MFS transporter
Amino acid sequence: MPAQPAAPPPQPAAPPPQPAAPARSRWLAVSAVAFGTFLLVTAEQLPIGLLAPVGSALSVSEGAAGLMVTVPSVVAAVAAPVVPVLVGRLDRRLLLVALMGLMTLANAASALAPSYPLLIAARVLVGVAIGGFWAVAGGLAVRLVPATHVPRATAIIFGGVGAANVFGVPVGTVIGGLASWRIAFGALGALALVVLAALLAVLPPLAADRPVSLGRLAGRLRDRGVLVGIVATFLIVTGHFSAYTFIGPVLRDLSGIDEQLVGPLLFGFGVAGIAGNFVAGAAVAKRLHRTVLAITVALAVTVLAYPVAGLTGAGGVALLVVWGLVYGGVSTSLQTWMIKAAPRAVEEASALWVAVFNLSIGLGALAGGAIVDTLPLQAVLWLAGVLFLMAALAVWSARRNASLT
């Protein structure tokens, strides 16, 4: 570089500050991704309310029809780490749009499937879209908003999960009952097309910083913060679904609540979960480790209290609302944990997290079913409580990690 003259020439004026529009457009992008997570969870769980009509139409048992839920969950667990590896440096905006296009086609194929094997094949495609989309979207907040707003943006993105449980699945089930299950799947495909258009309109280019590889994915597990987050996720989600899958029998047989009230009470659980999601989003911005530890301990206390304090209708309802409020903060807080634990490898950490999360859903339901079939109903609550306590110990062990405070 040449020597500077004694009197340097005037420098050009600094560029003017960015107008407010780009900031607004980034929050629109966050909202579009939240719309996407709403669709994903609705698509994954919608068949729960359609097992009987699908089984009747395609001449399979309701148990076999249940594979419409199991298959995409397992496929999503595999797709979450595999899709980012396969696409390399592909612009993540294009990837999300392509996966939403796949979701559109998969639901259209589900609506038109003439046989059960073809319906399951369409559900495999749904699983690929869920795993790939969630693996990228879960850590997208760090690329869309300033660092100080990442917890809030993450809470908005995962707000779609709670909204799907409260509105998406029930509305889809009503459509299936009033019209037909094919119309319900067709409506889901149309909604996916709307999300695709929204993503195209508001997402900025999202070039991959570096390609994800299997070696780098495995390397993330050598990071103690990431490993603790993965272990905690496995224990929390497995524990939750081992018990929550059978919340209907728990409310009916332990709390003495009329079966007709279970549906409205689960709606209340979902509303509490939405509130918990945003409460946790605000809390992790200040105290991440303490928030995750508090959530885990509160979950343990809640389910372990059920066999004692949940033996009346009032007690059962109160514990259910608390459970929903606390569990609503799990996705936001654990995703934020993974972002903080691997700030330079968010996509890799998120892919591992999504894989474990989806796999744990299936394992939890499977473990709970095995226990309910062989032991008293209370045993599934004890299992969940023990897993939550183990998760709390794992989280507590990371208390000295400065990036997670």
Observations:
- The domain at 25-202 is CATH 1.20.1250.20 (Growth Hormone; Chain: A;).
